[in-house]
Specification:
The chain is of the alpha+beta class. Among the domains are: about 70 residues, Lipocalin; about 90 residues, no CATH class. About 25% of the residues lie in helices and about 40% in strands. Helix 2 packs across helix 3. About 30% of the residues are buried.
Length: about 450
């Protein structure tokens, strides 16, 4: 049973293909179902429900993506202001399978998911292992075994092993579909195959991907459709067009969207808001009229009359938002004050220690020996800091000890630099301490 999100009385619920309400409107936001799960928002947090409306993964995330290949990317909240919110991946049981380390994660395609780390893009597998290093400015999802990647302003293909199969040399390159990918060659667009061979000559102003054997192309500022041989099968008469899905494609005429069939005949008259007529899936497409969202079937009949998709928070939601903001700010202020107090206590004990003159004299008379003793304190300090950091990350993010240790010493594993340094500091300090002991005995 396919379900579709709708809005009623400022809340979201779900209808079936006949327009019957299946899940009553109770959510602040609602995403489409994917693999029988849908992300919904309630009181500022996202969770997941099944098609019976049962909550299967609790409301705890800042943002969510859609399920793909049994996994979904979610954005974990952070408790403190100075820690950035990161994306990780969970399974359908809500178990974290990829730790929240990334600035962004796209849905899985062909076993790999694109991720962004420090502004650059790469790919990870379902275990979180980096398969394609984050060295690209932009990437697309995998399709037919390859993905478009952009490096130094040029686009090419990589395969699922991370190997470049088409050197980045195109200023514009779209995803491979039905064996062809549109590419900018010179100042015109045409189509190439996976090897970079030109299959359809570059003679169009703009091109889209092939679907159901046809692709929209623009020439003389109008859109038509060509087949995989490059022959025009639907004359360029439209102001805009999208790819075919289930035998229908949306087209724009006089700033209104409608639908045509594969012969180019208009089967649903242009009447919808421009750029808001969606692709048909399971016989249903989303549309909008005057900014109001709705759904139609392949005959153009409304299964849900257009309603406003704008979310207007209720008074309770506004109060909850203000409370959360206030508590968030207060918790961070208390955190800073706590550490300032600890620092002040340490300064007080140092300044009023009766033996501070003896300590200073020892430093003057035996500086190397004092340095050796001091490094014992430093080593213990770094050990405690690393231990606290490990504990914090394991409790807050669910990181395993093995993952943390591997991340500390493997530069290919994505981990913030300050975290990696803190985890390695005890070992570096220990070896430095051994070196100082050797020097102390050498010059004693």
């Amino acid at each position: 049973m396919e379900l579709y999100p709708v809005k009623l009385n400022n809340k979201y619920g779900y209808i079936d293909k006949a327009g019957n309400m299946v899940i009553e409107p109770r959510y602040d936001e609602a995403d489409p179902f994917s693999e029988d799960m849908a992300g919904v928002k309630c009181r500022g947090k996202y969770g997941f429900i099944d098609k019976c409306g049962k909550v299967v993964i609790g409301f705890q995330y800042k943002e969510v993506s859609v399920f793909s290949e049994g996994l979904v990317a979610v954005k974990f909240p952070q408790k403190f202001i100075f820690l950035k919110e990161k994306w990780g991946i969970i399974n359908s049981s809500g178990i974290v399978v990829v730790q929240p380390l990334y600035e962004e994660i796209e849905p899985y395609s062909q076993g790999l998911a694109a991720f962004q780390f420090e502004g650059m893009w790469g790919f990870i597998d379902k275990n979180g292992t980096v398969v394609v290093d984050p060295i690209y400015e932009e990437v697309n999802d995998f399709s037919e075994g390859v993905a478009v990647v952009k490096k130094n302003g040029k686009c090419g293909f990589v395969n699922t092993k991370g190997k470049i199969v088409l050197e980045p040399k195109y200023e514009m390159l779209n995803t491979l579909h039905e064996g062809l990918a549109s590419a900018l060659i010179g100042d015109k667009m045409g189509y190439i195959n996976i090897k970079g061979q030109i299959i359809i000559a570059p003679e169009y102003e703009y091109t889209f991907q092939f679907s159901e054997g046809l692709a929209p192309v623009q020439c003389d500022e109008k859109f038509g459709f060509i087949n995989t041989s490059g022959e025009i099968v639907i004359s360029p008469l439209f102001d805009d067009a999208s790819s075919f899905s289930e035998g229908l494609a949306s087209v724009t005429l006089d700033q209104k969207d409608g639908y045509i069939d594969t012969s180019g005949e208009i089967v649903i008259a242009p009447q919808f808001d421009e750029c808001f007529a969606g692709r048909f899936e399971q016989g249903v497409a989303s549309i909008a009229i005057n900014g109001q969202d709705g759904y139609i079937n392949t005959q153009g009949e409304f299964i849900w009359n257009p309603t406003s998709s704008e979310h207007k928070p209720s008074r309770l939601e506004k109060l909850t938002q203000w409370f959360n903001r206030g508590w968030f700010l207060l918790s961070n202020v208390m955190f800073i004050l706590k550490w300032m107090l600890m620092f002040a206590i340490g300064i007080f004990l140092l300044c009023y220690n009766k033996n501070y003159e003896a300590i200073i004299n020892e430093i003057i008379t035996d500086p190397l020996g004092t340095l050796v003793k001091g490094f014992i304190v430093v080593w213990f300090g770094t050990l405690i800091a690393a231990g606290i950091l490990c504990l914090m990350y394991r409790i807050r993010h669910g990181y395993s000890r093995e993952f943390l240790m591997k991340s500390a010493f493997d530069s290919n594993m994505p981990m913030p630099g300050w975290v990696r340094f803190t985890l390695k500091a005890p070992i570096y300090t220990f070896f430095l301490y051994l070196g100082l002991i050797f020097l102390y005995h050498l010059f004693d």
